[in-house]
Amino acid sequence: MLRRQGIIGASLLGVPAAAVLAAGLLASAPAARGAQAPAKPASVAVGPQYDTAHVYVAPGNVAAFVRSWEATFGGTNTTPKVTDVTPTPSETISELVLSPVGTLSVFGYTTPAPYAFGQERGGDLVTSFGAGVADATRSGALLVVSPWNDPIGKDAIVQFPGGVDQQIYWHTTAPSYAPLTTIPESRVYLEPQAAAAFIHDYLAFSQGHITLDDRRADGGQIGLPGTTFREVLISSAFGKTLVIVTDGHLPYPFGLETTGYAVSSLTATLARATTAGAKILWGPYRSATADTAMVEFPGGYIAEVHQAGSPS
Question: Which residues pair with 242 in a beta bridge?
């Protein structure tokens, strides 16, 4: 039940055996008299409204996507502009959407998007760029794209276990966005071995904590009624990350979405979405903890949408 409580009005919220043995011995060794535990570094997260989902659509679909999204969820957007946001020459239409259920960075590339852009799930704003990149790599993430300067700040792309790419960014002038009404879930689908490594490393980076670990979640939530799966919810100042642990045998469109959005009424939201040109790909499905559906918006962006609990 914890996972689907939507948080209304929320604010900030294989290792070698020898290495494991050594770590255990060190952990059990008595501390020197008068010694103090090293201070835990401060989190570099700014807040979930600054952690954007990256939406890639064809340039001709940017306006249609933004209109459909805002008609469904509300919100505002910046004026679209043509810019180069990558370390090598490229060109994209870029637009920021500020909606009460999550912030989106929308890209419509007019040139081919260079590697590894389009593979990252989103961007996390950090208070210190150097510290953010150092925290990620120290926690086990790999640098996929080394730091570069963009027109308004600095960026890098890191990869957590299981091939989970995320952009880390910092702005020269700090942005100011309103708190979200509900906190979206970054949805990560992984097999068990990769899931264990991802959870370990992402907890270290985000300084978050596990708020739910359900090993018998209703498989109907991922299109597999009559089965169960494990879901692990990590909450941190970066927001919420839902790790969906499966064997990878998923029906369409599950696994193609990167984010789940919480709403107060799923029925009303789906009605607005279809009126605004979106398609319901699956659902709505009712489980003991949530009503959920999968929706495709103009331009091909697929999102999970859920309502906490079942309506009376």
Answer: 187, 233
Please tell me the total count of domains within the chain: 2
Other beta carbons less than 10 A from residue 224's beta carbon: 16
Taking alpha carbons only, the member of 103, 120, 105, 109 closest to residue 167 is 120
Q: Of 184, 217, 88, 194, whose CA–CA distance to 140 is shortest?
A: 194
> Tokens 């003991």, residue?
288
Q: Token digits for 99?
A: 């909606």
pTM score: 0.86
Task: Report the alpha-carbon distance of residue 306 to residue 264 in Å, rounded.
Answer: 8
Give pLDDT tens digits for 161-211.
Answer: 999 999 999 999 999 999 999 999 999 999 999 999 999 999 999 999 999
CA distance 245 to 215: 9
Q: Is 219 within the bounds of a domain?
A: yes
Cα distance between residue 275 and residue 263, in whole Å:
17
Contact by Cβ (8 Å): 190, 163: no
Could you list the residue range(s) of the whole structural domain that residue 90 is in?
48-171
